[in-house]
Structure formats: C-alpha cells, structure tokens
Design a protein that fits this description.
Order of helices and strands: HHHEEHEHEHEEEEEHEHEHEEHE
Radius of gyration: 24 Å
Distance between the termini: 39 Å
Strand order of the largest sheet: 4-3-5-13-6-14
Helix content: 40-55%
Shape: elongated
Oligomer: single chain
Structural class: alpha/beta
Length: 306
C-alpha cells in the first residue's frame, strides 16, 4: 500500500521507483500482484506515465487511511508512558491564524518540546478537504456543510464587524456604535469572492432581508483587503480576529453589525475515520485552552461555547 501511494503521487513508475529506492521491474510486479489479488485494474500504463483507474482511485483512498492508521498505531506505542512525540498538522483559516497560530506554537513548544506542530493557513473549504484526506490532522472550520461526518467541537461564535479607515468613517454614528446591516448597502465594500466562506456568511444574512450590498472590489487576500481599507479605498466586513493587528495599531476602526447580529461559528474538527494519536489529542486540548485564554483577554473577540 505504501508503494501504491508513492506510485499514485508520481508521474511515472520509474519516478516512483527512484523515490522508493527499488528497481522498477520489482515495483511493477508489486502492482501486478496487487491487481491479481484484488481482481481489478488499478493503474493504466502508457508512454506518458501512469494514471489511476477509478478502482485505483478508490483503493488509494483506503490505502492512505490504512497507512495513516498504522503510523498512528506505531507512534502511540512509542509514546506510551513517555513524552509526546511526532508531528501534528493543523489547518487554520487566515482570520483564526492571525490570533491563534503564534500563541499556540509557543504553548506547544513549552509544554511538549518533542512534538512538532505544522500549522498551515488556508480557506476553510480547503481545510475540510485536508482533514478528509489526511493532509492535516486537525483544523478550524466555520461551517459543517460537507463536514457532517467530522468530529467537531464548537469553540466559539464570532460576531462580524464593519471596518473603516479612521479618517474615512462614513456613518453618522461614531465607531463602536452598532450599525444596522442595511446602512452599509450604499457603501463601497471590499469583500472576498463569492466562493469564500466569509462572503457566503455575509450574503446569507443580507439576501434573505433584501439587502443588496455594493461590492466594488473582490479579493481573497485578507492583508490586502485591510490595506485597501486603511487607505480609504473602501470598507469591509470581518471578524475582529482577522483585523486584530491593524485595529491594535489604530489603522482600522470598527463597529459591530446589528439588525441582524451577524455571527459566525468556529469549530475545531478532525476526521473520526482516522485514528487520533496522543499527540493530536494533546494539541486539541491545548488549542481549546489557548482559545479560552485569548477570548477572556479580549484578543479573540467572541462568545465561548465549549
């Protein structure tokens, strides 16, 4: 199965053989034996390389699950009764990473010096796929659509805020005063594209109420959105965690949105189909502790659930 995973991820059998350090004829025979045992064709061979069949794609999914579970078993046996070791992949959306990644990394380094945390920043949708295929062991996501089979902990609810540059505040009420969502529809907004989870959340509140937001710029880069708003090029809607750095410097000012209150849940998720290691379980617990501390200190603005 390990050989098959490398074959699937390589452009050709010769490339896979080189990576594995085995002779190509031996590797080819290994595939033939697997196909004979299963009674299925797993790989199509051609002059341009190797391509998985539909059966091969299904087998690859199971092979990854089995090999990951076996590695977790070995890691747990090595760790039993001793210090936590190994690597834990953690997926974080940019707004969560802004407040969580550094304090979590520092806490893990102090409490578990032999454990290696690999934090990867991506959109929530990508993190769901990575949890599914084992690219990461654990991750933060914002909604459970397509993730109903995950093991999840509802960590907190974030309220969304309206953000402006301090010299371009467009409303009659001062920053900090709740702003009705309808009051924003005449403003030039800078938001992520419609496929982004944050944009879907915002539109999910606006459309049922007949509110047509004026999105003049679409950008899936959080730092650039904030930079444009500080320059007075438009306004945006974000969770406070996403703009904590700019707001702390006074480069952005904000108001909570009301009528309706716009709330986004934050879940900590893992895949129950994959055996969770002691290291992963320890990281999950430390993550909840760090999140609780950040909320209580006002760094991560939200209402704790767990």
């Amino acid at each position: 199965m390990r050989y098959f995973i490398v074959i699937a991820e390589s452009p050709s059998l010769s490339a896979a053989a080189s990576l594995l350090g085995v002779a190509q004829p031996s590797l080819s025979q290994n595939v033939v034996r697997m196909e004979e045992e299963l009674g299925l064709r797993l790989v199509e061979r051609s002059a341009r390389g190797t391509v998985l069949t539909d059966d091969g794609t299904l087998f690859l999914k199971h092979a990854r699950t089995v090999c990951a579970a076996f590695e977790t078993c070995l890691a747990d046996m090595r760790e039993a009764g001793g210090a936590l070791r190994g690597k834990v992949g953690f997926g974080m959306p940019p707004s969560v990473s802004m407040v969580m990644s550094v304090p979590l990394a520092e806490t893990v380094r102090i409490e578990f010096p032999d454990l290696r945390l690999r934090a990867i920043e991506a959109m929530s949708g990508h993190i769901k796929a990575w949890i599914d295929d084992g690219t990461v062991d654990i991750g933060f996501i914002y909604d459970l659509a397509g993730a109903e089979h995950f093991r999840t902990t509802h960590v907190l609810n974030e309220r969304l805020f309206f953000f402006s540059g301090p010299d371009a505040w467009p409303l009659d009420t001062p920053p900090g005063t709740p702003v009705p969502l309808r009051a924003l529809q005449a403003l030039d907004l800078i938001l992520p594209s419609p496929m982004h989870g944050l944009r879907k959340t915002i539109e999910g509140y606006a459309r049922p109420r007949g509110i047509d937001l004026n999105v003049t710029v679409e950008m899936d880069a959080m730092t650039q959105i904030k930079e444009l708003v500080t320059r007075g090029s438009g306004y945006t809607i974000l969770a406070p965690a996403a703009a904590h750095d700019f707001a702390a410097r006074g480069d952005l000012v904000k108001s909570p949105i009301c009528d309706p209150d716009m709330v986004r849940p934050v879940y900590l998720a893992s895949n129950p189909a994959r055996q969770s290691s002691r290291a992963c379980r320890a990281i999950a617990q430390v993550t909840l502790d760090v999140a609780r501390d950040l909320v209580q200190r006002g760094i991560w603005e939200g209402a704790l659930v767990s």
